[in-house]
Amino acid sequence: MFYSSTTAGTGSRLFTSGSLQRLPTSSASTILHDISSSKGVAKVILKKGKTQLFRDGGSPMVYSGAVDRIIGRPPPKTGDVVLVADGTQTPFAWGFYNSSSMFCVRLMMQLKHESS
């Protein structure tokens, strides 16, 4: 199943296998978390304060120094898809994991948040 999202109006849009759902950002984050948990996808948790470096047009390359911990059994292997979350474990992106690079995640899709 392919997942992608963009911001529109008052919430986020989450595309799932060709169907379109408009969801509040918090609902979309919950869905991403549920998907990762049910499919055994590892979650890369960033250190507090590092999320803004990679969110909303920032760098798509997450360097290993920005990572607080990786949650998942078994641990991700190079090339695995991982869920990337901020320091409060709120998911904000999907990426490809690379265990042999100083850039341990290449972001491929972000859940856009709304500014308040």
Automatic annotation (TrEMBL):
SMART domains: PUA. GO terms for molecular function: RNA binding. It comes from the Eukaryota. It is found in: Cytoplasm. Its main location: cytoplasm. SUPFAM superfamilies: PUA domain-like. This is PUA domain-containing protein. It comes from Artemisia annua. GO terms for biological process: rRNA processing. The lineage of its organism: Eukaryota, Viridiplantae, Streptophyta, Embryophyta, Tracheophyta. Pfam families: PUA_3 (PF17785). Keywords: Cytoplasm, Methyltransferase, RNA-binding, rRNA processing, S-adenosyl-L-methionine, Transferase. Residues 42-116 form the PUA domain.
